[in-house]
Amino acid sequence: MSAIATPARQTASRQNSGGLSTKTINRIVIYGLLALFALFYLMPLFVMLVTSFKTMDEIQNGNMLALPKAPTFDPWLKAWGETCVGLTCAGIKGYFWNSIKMVVPAVLISTMLGALNGYVLTKWRFRGATLVFGLMLFACFIPFQSVLLPMATILGSLGRFGVSLQNSVGTSFGLGNPTVNLVFVHVVYGIGFTTLFFRNYYEAFPNELIKAAQVDGASFFQIFRRIMLPNSMPIFVVTVIYQFTNIWNDFLFASAYAGTGDAMPMTVALNNVVNTSTGVVEYNVNMAAAMIAALPTLIVYVVAGRYFVRGLMAGAVKG
Amino acid sequence: MSTVATTQIKLTPERSRPTVRARLQDALPKIVLAPSFAITIVFVYGFILWTIYLSFTNSKTFPSYVITGSRAYQRLWGWTFDTDPPSSWYTSITNMGIFGFLYILICLALGLFLAILLDQKIRGEGVLRPIYLYPMALSFIVTGVAWKWFLDPGLGLEQTLHQWGWTSFHFDWIKNKDFVIYTVVIAGVWQASGFIMAMFLAGLRGIDGEIMKAAQIDGATTFQLYRRIVIPLLRPIFLSAFIVLAHLAIKSYDLVVALTSGGPGGSAWLPSNFMYEYTFKRNEMAVGSASAVIMLMTIVAIIVPYLYSELREKPR
User: Fold this and answer.
1) What is the pLDDT of residues B112-152, one digit of tens each?
2) Residue in A with minimal Cα distance to B135
3) Architecture of the domain made up of B87-283
């Protein structure tokens, strides 16, 4: 092998003395390819962004890649406040808030539960802990199609129960409210991942500290609050970002349990805006709506990309 | 390990009679974990059993609990391309095969390629890496909307190239029932390949520099170095990446909806779309449930051996 390789290296060094060395050519090729792929990844976002600032006239007659000649913010305003989602024409702002109202509680509850579960599974091990964890972990990977219909049935009966409560007691306690339903669904199918994150993080946390605290008479919750929580900041950030991105971007649950009416989350509303077939299709408004739907997760990515990647990795590489 | 510690603590103050309080303290960890575990058992495993049960009934618009045997499965598999109308299920699984194979292969190849390029001590890596990775932060719906626009023959790429003078350029895959699934591959690869790149890059950074140096001293060319030494060392990453991609591919639903609205005549459907349509729109709950069960079995076949080995590897 080395016998074959050596002449190649000699040629390389011989060429070095000449004008353009192989090394320089290599570097040019590498940078060229990297730049080309950067274009590939940036292109759709670029097109979406410039289109959202163009007038319809310019879209129909101009070039997709051209910068807007007379940038206008109107498509964004229209997408936010006027565009039609199905039959209601009040923009996507209501649906944006729906998503916020769904995401915030779902992320907080699932993260808190995950932290507690991870704490129990690593620091208060009991017989069968690995099995419990294994069962919860597998739940992360099931295709949600296999639970979609039973969940719809249960949510339907809870909704009917809520109506009868409303009639008899005067409040439904949130039963049957699509946003509450979605929070519940996302918590149920999110705790597997949050537990995984915290378990792996707490696994490396020194047991001696816990034992010392126990000897000092600290209780289960005191140890969690005083020792674990203050040292969990990084994993909290990772988990919150991961859950936020997943739940904000979810479409399957959203369309199955809140697919129509005023409670639609952002992703469903966006899909409806784009596929509304009545009248002239306003591409600039569609693109602005898509940008609005993408912005929260994009901002999180730009601000805390490192943690975002760590979350993805933790979801992919277990141990 | 920690169980021992708990008993010791309990013994010191209350040796004579374990009060209710002490016993409660002792059971507290399990009480805290119990709700999550119960939720998982009921809403994951219970619901899976429920779906399996439904797939053996004659449920149509509403769930029915009369067992009618494997009728739904027979309908699913006995209904082929030759029947009229041709089978949507066969279309879905054929698409799954095409999409799954190309999506996984291209993501792995492109991810590895980009990771190797980025690992050549590149200036500006800090700028390029986030650019490759950001699509992963987007919703499939946004990705679908963006690519739908980009691939539209009248507005997107084709139109642009026509304006630039390449008038013979023709690209209408997104409207063509035989090719629409390949546009889903393009958009899917665009979204996930950057993440696979990040996984490989992390793997490459973890390789001991000494091994590389030793190989170079032995006179290995760069190509040989990667083919013989680096890529075999990355085997665990290949496995993880494969699992991630297979899992994403089988779950893909949103992308097909947003990018193609199902394609002409449902030609872009994946099993997930089939399940949704049959369960919620075509009033064939039993058939929809049967397809969900088949999807689940596929995932189980891939994930369970993987999880088992992952949880086994580190006995404590």
Assistant:
1) 999 999 988 888 888 898 899 899 889 999 999 999 888 88
2) A41
3) Orthogonal Bundle (1.10)
- Please tell me the predicted confidence (pLDDT) of residue B228: 85
Query: Model ipTM?
Result: 0.84
With beta carbons under 8 A apart, name residues in chain A contacting B133. Answer: 305, 309
Global pTM value: 0.86
Each domain of chain B, given as residue ranges in start order, spans 87-283
Asked if residue A194 belongs to a domain, the reply is: yes
**A243 lies in the same domain as A190:** yes
CB contact under 8 A, B155 and A64: yes
| Helical axes B125-133 vs A22-52, angle rounded to 10° | 50
Q: What is the pLDDT of residue B16?
A: 53
Is the same domain home to A42 and A97? Answer: no
A215 within some domain: yes
The answer as to whether A76 is a domain residue is no
Q: Which residue has the higher pLDDT, A106 or A64?
A: A106
Supply the CATH number for residue A138's domain: 1.10.3720.10
Contacts of B275 in chain A (CB under 8 A): 145, 148
Alpha carbon A165 to its chain's center = 35
Q: How far is CA A296 from CA A38, A112, A246, A272, in A?
A: 22, 22, 12, 19
Mean pLDDT of chain B: 84
Is A280 within the bounds of a domain?
yes
Say yes or no: A32 and A86 in one domain: no
Give me the domain span that covers residue A120. Answer: 81-316
Handedness of CA B250, A146, B305, A205 (dihedral sign): positive
Would you state the structure tokens that stand for residue A20, as one six-digit string?
A: 């353009």
Shared domain check, A17 and A162:
no
- Which of chain A's residues have a Cβ under 8 Å away from the Cβ of B258? 251, 271, 274
Q: How many domains does chain A have?
A: 2
B303 to A141: CB separation less than 8 angstroms, yes or no: yes
Q: Which of B110, B93, B116, B89 is nearest to B226 (CA)?
A: B116
A30-76 pLDDT tens trace: 899 999 999 999 999 999 999 999 888 888 777 888 888 888 888 89
> Distance between CA atoms of A282 and A305, rounded to whole angstroms?
33
Determine which of B4, B65, B139 to mutate to test the interface with A (most A C-beta atoms within 10 Å): B139
Cis peptide before B85, with omega less than 30 degrees from 0? yes
Domain match, A174 and A242 both: yes
* Across B28-38, average pLDDT: 91
**A123/chain B closest Cα distance in angstroms:** 7
A106 and A25 in a common domain: no
pLDDT tens, position by position, B148-192: 888 888 777 887 888 888 877 777 788 778 888 999 999 999 999
Of A1, A124, A146, the CB nearest to B29: A124
Examine the domain organization and report whether A198 and A242 are in the same domain.
yes
CA distance A11 to chain B (A): 13
The closest alpha carbon to A265, from A56, A97, A121, A143, belongs to A97
Q: Residue A240's pLDDT band (boundaries 50, 70, 90)?
A: very high
